[in-house]
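[step 3/7] inverse_fold.run input=structure_tokens len=581
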């Protein structure tokens, strides 16, 4: 048996890339969901291990993956935890597509349910497969929608009678399957409901089920049909800028105390708007700064107010000193545990929310009247262009603005900064993307009307009191002609071929989860591909490098954009080119 640290190092595809060390290589469309009276456990845990090292198939329990033994259930039950999200992987459960269930893996899952039954715990059984089987997206190649329906039918046949089975989480973190996921989700629902007419089915969302951008990608899930009218939508939330859980390029001391609330609010508001129920299936904060716990505390208070349960990532065997883990070390609780413990509660809510008019436990005090600020908030004109994606410089499908990437704008419009729109709305910047001479500023809001808040209006930084400037200061006219624009084809500083590998996290050397590219860590590459340098992709797009991560003989180059890259279009055998440093 390997040590706990070794399990983390060998873990792959048991969750999204950033939450681990780099691997070794719907409800009925026209009806509101039924209200199911129950004791809602507001905080639970992801008890992981069975999905570790998904690249090693079938693998060996205790070597490549690890099922929790009884002591883990005994320990967490004693601490008050009753809700467990339990990830498993399809390839181990059914080694041959369309074939029988593997008796060894199946027996270990049986054992897990036995422990949960003994300690009165509830299990959300999570098929942790990212809409893929052996790297092929369901509904493409040799992996059909019927294959997926069959495995969900077999899962329900095997475990629907288990008293501790609470719900079926029919697919973890769908991505790269915008077209296929809504179709396959219906097949998955059909498979479960052919056997189990009662238990909830959980539906995660496209875009890695990320809560902040959930409304961008997932309206198509509103068309899902469940004859039992018992769907629960599940989002995931991590507080770093790209929501990946790596937390390497963010300063928590600069984040507002309600930053966690703002991260999950778009998902909660989507649920309210559409009359759906939901939960947060994964969230986690680092153990290296107490302020992370404040952000998590405020988020959990907001979720409790809305009766939305949440399961923390992660606990269970094999995590060692992993910075998001809440598994005790040598009997000592981790720093995140006291905050989580505050919200162990199964008496406050008798149905999963949210509710359209939640009652706050503590009334929000009325704001103290103040004299309007006479200071001038920094402002920028919004770019004047309209096409299929933009209207007057405002993105049509999400809350984003395009402004010039001047030094003043890049300094002023930073993540976490409050801005005021032309309609008076004050909101915070959630992410910023620099593309050539322009920058996209994404804010925490539903989609905006470019005819109302777009060009010729301005985007204004609000002051500390949240008022901002009522009349932005005019920009001085230049006394000399503007400099000649940079050439459309910047001079090449350096170039490198991308690494040629594909797995559940990468496609042709391009990360599936975030805008990142893998290159050989040669002396020339480490010198050229530095944070802040501009690089050009094979499709002509130019981005700045946000961060670089060295892993053995390779390096991962992360780009400053929230948009995922298409490895089929820009990956190997294409090159990545540095055009400025």
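[step 3/7] decode complete -> sequence:
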């Amino acid at each position: 048996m390997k040590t706990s640290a070794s399990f983390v190092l060998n873990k792959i595809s048991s969750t999204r890339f950033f939450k681990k060390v780099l691997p070794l290589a719907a409800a009925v469309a026209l009806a509101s969901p039924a209200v199911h009276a129950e004791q809602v456990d507001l905080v639970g845990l992801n008890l992981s291990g069975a999905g570790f090292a998904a690249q090693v198939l079938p693998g060996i329990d205790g070597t490549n993956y690890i099922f929790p033994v009884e002591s883990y259930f005994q320990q967490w039950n004693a601490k008050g935890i009753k809700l467990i999200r339990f990830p498993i992987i399809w390839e181990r459960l059914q080694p041959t597509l369309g074939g029988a269930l593997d008796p060894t893996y199946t027996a270990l899952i049986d054992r897990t349910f036995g422990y949960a039954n003994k300690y009165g715990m509830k299990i959300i059984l999570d098929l942790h497969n990212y809409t893929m089987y052996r790297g092929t997206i369901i509904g493409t190649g040799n992996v059909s929608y019927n294959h997926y329906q069959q495995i969900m039918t077999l899962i329900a046949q095997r475990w629907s009678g288990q008293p501790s089975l609470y719900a079926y989480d029919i697919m973890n973190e769908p991505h790269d399957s915008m077209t296929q996921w809504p179709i396959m989700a219906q097949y998955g629902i059909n498979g479960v409901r052919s056997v189990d007419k009662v238990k909830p089915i959980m539906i995660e969302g496209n875009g890695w089920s990320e809560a902040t951008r959930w409304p961008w990608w997932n309206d198509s899930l509103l068309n899902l049909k469940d004859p039992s009218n018992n769907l629960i939508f599940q989002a995931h939330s991590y507080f770093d800028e790209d929501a990946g859980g790596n937390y390497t390029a963010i300063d928590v001391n600069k984040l507002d105390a309600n930053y966690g609330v703002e991260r999950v609010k778009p998902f909660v508001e989507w649920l309210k708007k559409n009359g759906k129920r939901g939960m947060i299936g994964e969230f986690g904060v680092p153990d290296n700064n107490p302020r992370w716990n404040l952000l998590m505390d405020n988020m959990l208070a907001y979720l409790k107010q809305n009766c939305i349960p949440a399961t923390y990532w992660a606990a269970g065997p094999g995590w060692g000193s992993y910075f998001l883990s809440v598994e005790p070390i040598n009997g000592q609780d981790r720093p995140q545990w006291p905050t989580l413990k505050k919200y162990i509660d199964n008496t406050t809510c008798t149905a999963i929310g949210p509710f359209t008019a939640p009652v706050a436990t503590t009334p929000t005090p009325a704001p103290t009247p103040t004299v309007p600020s006479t200071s001038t908030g920094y402002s920028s004109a919004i770019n004047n262009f309209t096409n299929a994606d933009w209207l007057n410089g405002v993105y049509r499908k999400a809350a984003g603005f395009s402004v010039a990437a001047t030094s003043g704008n890049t300094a002023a419009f930073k993540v976490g900064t409050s801005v005021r729109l032309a309609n008076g709305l004050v909101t915070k910047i959630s992410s910023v993307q620099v593309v050539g001479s322009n920058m996209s500023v994404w804010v925490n809001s539903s989609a905006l009307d470019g005819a109302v808040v777009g060009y010729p209006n301005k985007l204004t930084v609000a002051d500390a009191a949240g008022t901002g400037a009522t009349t932005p200061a005019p920009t001085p006219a230049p006394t000399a002609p503007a400099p000649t624009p940079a050439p459309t084809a910047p001079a090449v500083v350096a170039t490198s071929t991308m690494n040629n590998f594909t797995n559940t996290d990468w496609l042709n050397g391009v990360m599936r989860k975030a805008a990142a590219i893998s290159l050989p860590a040669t002396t020339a590459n480490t010198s050229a591909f530095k944070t802040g340098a501009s690089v050009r992709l094979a499709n002509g797009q130019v981005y700045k490098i946000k961060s670089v991560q060295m892993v053995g003989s390779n390096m991962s180059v992360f780009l400053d954009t929230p948009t995922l890259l298409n490895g089929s279009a820009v990956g190997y055998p294409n090159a990545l080119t540095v055009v400025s440093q």
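[step 4/7] annotate
Residues 4-28+37-342 form a domain with the TIM Barrel fold (CATH 3.20.20.80).
Confidence is low (pLDDT under 50) at residues 1-32, 357-376, 464-490.
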